[in-house]
Structure formats: structure tokens, C-alpha cells
Write a structure and sequence with these properties.
Blueprint lengths: L6 H24 L6 H14 L3 E2 L17 E5 L2 E3 L14 E10 L2 E10 L6 H18 L9 H13 L3 E2 L5 E3 L6 E5 L16 E4 L2 E3 L5 E3 L6 E3 L5 E3 L2 E5 L4 E3 L5
Helix pairs in contact: 1-2, 3-4
This protein binds magnesium ion (2 copies).
Length: 257
């Protein structure tokens, strides 16, 4: 069931989104060769708590033999797509692609946003293109979000931009509705034919998150039960915003200054 948000609830999500955007700015400034992913996690957690919010990811998703996520952000390097676990042993190096995923809950509502950074000089023309194209795919998806559009228009826009540039889109992980829970209905794949699924209407809030690979779209999960990598070892990038459908279009709740 899709849970539509009232204007007051969207307002609370606006604050959650602003906190997430601020966290991204803060952590981005701390990224440099030699920093560990655990240090970046600590910067994020401190900032989120200073704002009176709570990290969404910490303690999330334990089930069966999988332990709950132990950190406040996901830090995914190079062939890691999403859900990389911060570690004191993981040192960021010049030329790395670093995907950072952030979630914060404020007054009961979540914000969710991700960016991919190149640490220092790009390691290759292709890596630079991958990061640019993935961000462009998110922008193309956002341009589809307005009342009357269909849900699958979002993923179709991502797929067109990513595959048009010669890359592939991850199939096994998708965007999602967001609100009192980090993951709500509907699921939002990053591929598919346009013109399908529910019509978008005001009060729908979604997290749109293209994950784009240089090689094939196939993925696997590492032995830590969290980190998702490309099956073929190729580079991957990830961008995400939390977006509210408004009366006349949309508002990106996690927009950065
Ligand atoms: Mg996210
Ligand atoms: Mg998300």
C-alpha cells in the first residue's frame, strides 16, 4: 500500500532531507586519501545527532544470520555498488570511486540520499564518465516526477541515460517509497518500459536511486552479508535523492546548497 503524506508530513520530511543534505556536505569535505571509511562514518553520525536526528541505517535490517547494519552510512568503493560497511581497516585512496549513502530520521520521518565521489584525480576517463552519467540519470528521472506521470517513467528515464552511454543499470536493488519507514511501497526499478504502474500524485514521496555499472548489471553479496558488488568486478556508481510529488511537479527534499 502506498502511504501518501500530508503537507505537514512533507514538511517534516523536508527537515529530514535538509539534515541528510547537510551530512553529505560535511562528510564530502572530510574525504581525502588516507581517511578510513570508519572516520567518515563517525563524522556523519556526529553531525546527524547534533541536528537532533537519528541515523536511519544503524541497526537496520538484521535477519536470520545477517547482523543488523553496524554503521550510520554506507561506504562503497569501486566495484562495490551499495551497502559497503565502514571499517577502520578500509583506507580511501587517490583515484577511488567512493559511493556514500546517507539516511536520517527526524520527528519520525526519513530522508535518504547518496552520492559517488572520485577521490583526487579520476583513475580513468571511463570512471569520470560513469559518475557523470549516473548523476545525469538521476536528474533525468527527477524530471519525470510530476502529477499524472506513471511510476515506470522514472526507471525508463534512468535506463535510457545509462544504457545510452554504454553502461548497465543494476536490476536487483531498486528505489522506494519513503516516509515513517525508510523503505515503503512502491518499489522503483531503474529500468523498464515507460507508461506503466500507478499515476504519481501529490503526497507521494520517493527515493530514486540509480545504480550504474561499467560492465554487466549482475551483482553478488560479499561474505559480510551486506556489501553488494558487481559480479564482473567493474566499477559502479550510485546517486539518490528523496523527492516529493507536489501539485505542479516535484520537490527534491535532499537537495544540496
Ligand atoms: Mg540510500
Ligand atoms: Mg534508498
Amino acid at each position: 500500500m502506498i502511504i501518501y503524506k500530508s503537507p505537514d508530513e512533507v514538511d517534516r520530511m523536508r527537515t529530514a532531507g535538509r539534515i541528510v543534505a547537510g551530512t553529505i556536505d560535511r562528510v564530502t569535505r572530510a574525504v581525502r586519501p588516507g581517511v578510513t571509511t570508519a572516520e567518515l562514518d563517525a563524522v556523519a553520525e556526529a553531525y546527524i545527532r547534533e541536528q537532533g536526528a537519528t541515523p536511519s541505517f544503524k541497526g537496520y535490517g538484521g535477519s536470520g544470520r545477517r547482523k543488523p547494519f553496524p554503521a550510520s552510512i554506507c561506504t562503497s568503493l569501486n566495484d562495490e555498488i551499495v551497502h559497503g560497511v565502514p571499517s577502520r581497516k578500509r583506507i580511501v585512496a587517490e583515484g577511488d570511486l567512493l559511493s556514500l549513502d546517507f539516511g536520517a530520521v527526524w520527528d519520525g520521518f526519513h530522508g535518504d540520499s547518496a552520492v559517488t565521489l572520485i577521490v583526487g584525480e579520476p583513475p580513468s576517463v571511463e570512471a569520470e564518465k560513469l559518475v557523470r552519467v549516473t548523476e545525469e540519470a538521476l536528474e533525468a528521472a527527477i524530471s519525470q516526477v510530476r502529477p499524472g506521470a506513471r511510476l515506470s517513467d522514472i526507471g525508463a528515464a534512468v535506463q535510457q541515460v545509462a544504457e545510452g552511454a554504454g553502461f548497465s543499470v543494476v536490476r536487483e536493488y531498486v528505489g522506494h517509497g519513503i516516509g515513517r519507514s525508510m523503505h515503503e511501497e512502491p518499489q522503483i526499478p531503474n529500468y523498464g518500459e515507460p507508461g506503466r504502474g500507478v499515476q504519481l500524485k501529490p503526497g507521494l514521496v520517493v527515493a530514486v536511486e540509480p545504480m550504474v555499472n561499467v560492465g554487466g548489471w549482475e551483482t553478488r553479496v560479499l561474505a559480510d552479508d551486506w556489501t553488494v558488488v558487481t559480479e564482473d568486478g567493474s566499477l559502479s556508481a550510485h546517486f539518490e535523492h528523496t523527492i516529493a510529488v507536489t501539485e505542479d511537479g516535484c520537490e527534491v527534499l535532499t537537495a544540496r546548497g
